[in-house]
Amino acid sequence: MFVDLNCDLGESFGAYQKGNDKEILHYVTSANIACGFHAGDPSTMRETVKRALEKNAAIGAHPGLPDLIGFGRRNLDIAPQEAYDMVLYQIGALHAFVQAEGGRLKHVKPHGALYNMAARNSELAAAIAEAVYKADPNLILFGLSGSTLVKTGEKLGLHTANEVFADRTYQLDGTLTPRKHANAFITSDKQSINQILRMVKEGRVCSVQGDDAIVKADTICIHGDGPHALEFAKKIRSTLEAEGIEVRAR
């Protein structure tokens, strides 16, 4: 049994620093690097790519909506063609930095609102999956476990990774509780770790409605910008390994 541990990185912008990328890379196995639309800038992209390569973390593009002010978390009414264009553009930008540093781009994980929209919207999911496939059919498409995005990627012939979240609560249909809800986040390390172990071992997660939702845990997302993110990442990795679960990239 093995699982990937991923984190969204490179989300600083200009003079604004976000997260603890350098230290969190000691514990994660995949790095999703922002590509300049929702966060990130060319220098941050280059620096984050170099750090990820130094730690042998698998590098993925983390394309988002063009919404720096809203950090890519606000739904925008975009057409499928726009989604295709912006995802392909961002993959290409990060790929250039990865190639320049002697690495290889391994996966793509949409960010924020784009991720959640594509989890339900089949047309957006198809556009994103096609952009990934056209960029490189060997890339792995990360998406919410059991989502339309994952299923669409599989139909197109892409390798996919069903993603689960360490610090988010779930609805009965397997979707994440929206961030605007008071119970969207799990703040207890113990509760988060128990949720992770159950998702990995049993393929189930207790929803906010009280019943179990079915999930598949190929990769676990942890957020690197919280006040205790570094200690939490360390605790998750050590717990998984103590339970006999290998932590490695897909």
UniProtKB/TrEMBL annotation:
The keyword Metal-binding does not apply. It is an enzyme of class 3 (hydrolase). Keywords: ATP-binding, Hydrolase, Nucleotide-binding. InterPro entries: Glyco_hydro/deAcase_b/a-brl (IPR011330), LamB/YcsF/PxpA-like (IPR005501). It catalyses: 5-oxo-L-proline + ATP + 2 H2O = L-glutamate + ADP + phosphate + H(+). Its EC number is 3.5.2.9. Catalyzes the cleavage of 5-oxoproline to form L-glutamate coupled to the hydrolysis of ATP to ADP and inorganic phosphate. Forms a complex composed of PxpA, PxpB and PxpC. Belongs to the LamB/PxpA family. HAMAP family: PxpA. NCBIfam families: PRK05406.1-3 (NF003814), PRK05406.1-5 (NF003816). This is 5-oxoprolinase subunit A. It comes from Heyndrickxia acidicola.
